[in-house]
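Listing 4. Sequential folding, example run.
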Amino acid sequence: MRRRKAAPPFNRALCWAGPSTIGVCAVHILQADFDDPRVIDLLQVHASRARAETARDSAHALDLDGLRVPEIRCWTIWDDTVLAGIGALKRLSAVHAEIKSMHIVEAMRGRGIGGTLLRHLIAVAQAEGMSRLSLETGAWAYFLPAQALYRRHGFVECAPFAGYRPDPNSVFLSLRLRGD
C-alpha cells in the first residue's frame, strides 16, 4: 500500500489591497468543521446561490449533508479570523478526484484567496497520487469568474465525467496532474 504524502501548507496569499497595491494577508487553510455555524451558513449560501444561478436540475453544488461522506474531504480558508471560503475534494478513483463546492465569500473575491485555496486542493490531489483533477461548474454569467480562475491554473474543458451528462448549463474542466 502506498503511503500518502502530506500536502504542503499554504499559509499566506497575495491579496489585492486596492486597484494599484498588493498586500499580504494572513490566510490559513483548515479542515472544515461542520459543527461551526459560520461554515454551515456559508454552505447554505453556496448551495442556494448555485441553485439560484443555474437552471433547474443543473446545479451540482453540495450542501452540508452532501459533503459528509467518506470519499469527500473539505477545507475552509480564513483571512485571519474571518471565514473566506470553502472547497472540497471527492475521490472518484485511485487516480481521479473532483473539486466540489468551492466557494469564496463575495466580499473576499478578487484578493487571491480563491487561487490559494485552489492551489491547496491541487497540492493535496498531487500528494495523494492523483493524475487527474476535474470539476463541474455553471455555464451562466455568474460562474464566469470561477471558470477564469480554473483556466488560469491550467484546467481545460473536458467531457462530462463521473456520471455527469452533457448539459448546456454546465462546463466540465480537468487538469492533468502527472503524465501517466
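-- end of first protein; second protein begins --
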Amino acid sequence: MKKTKKRREKLKRQKKSLNKKDAFRILKFLVRFNLFAIPLYLIIVSGFQLGFLKDATADFTFHMLRLTGIDASITGNLISIPAENGVFAARIDWDCTGWKSMFALFALIFATDFSMRKKLHGLVLIPAVYIVNLLRIWFMFLFVSDFGLAYYDIVHATIWSWGLILTVLVLWVVWMRFFK
C-alpha cells in the first residue's frame, strides 16, 4: 500500500512539472505565432498586393468555370456568368486570393518547435490552401448559377470562411502528425 501511495505522489509531481513545461511551450508558440501577425498587419496597412496572384486566381477560376460548363466571361479580374434575371459578376481582388489563409498556415508551421527541415517540408501544403480557395470561388459562381443570389451572403461569409479556417487547421495538424 505504501508503494502505491508513493507512486501516486510521484506521478502527481511529474504531472505538475509536465504542465509547467507544456504551458511554457504553448506560451512560446503563441508568442511566435503573434510575431508573424506583425507582417500580416503591415501588408494590410500598406496596401501591398501581388497583382500576379490576383490575375492567376481570376484566370484559374475562369478556366475552371468554363471546364465545368458554366458560360463565364472575364475582363481583367472581373468574372461574369449568366444568372437568374440577368448576369452575376464578381471581381477577384486581393482578399479573394486566399493569401491570409496561406499566411496563417505558414505562421502556424513556423511557430512550432519542430526542426527547420520539417518546417520547410510543411510549406508544400500551402498550395493546398490555394487550391481549396480556388474551389471556394468556383463553388460560389456555381452556387449563384444554380440557385441565384438568395443565400449567397450566408454561403460566402459563413460557410466558406469557416471552411478555409478548418482547412488551414486540418492541414496544420496533418503536417504535425504525419510529416517526417
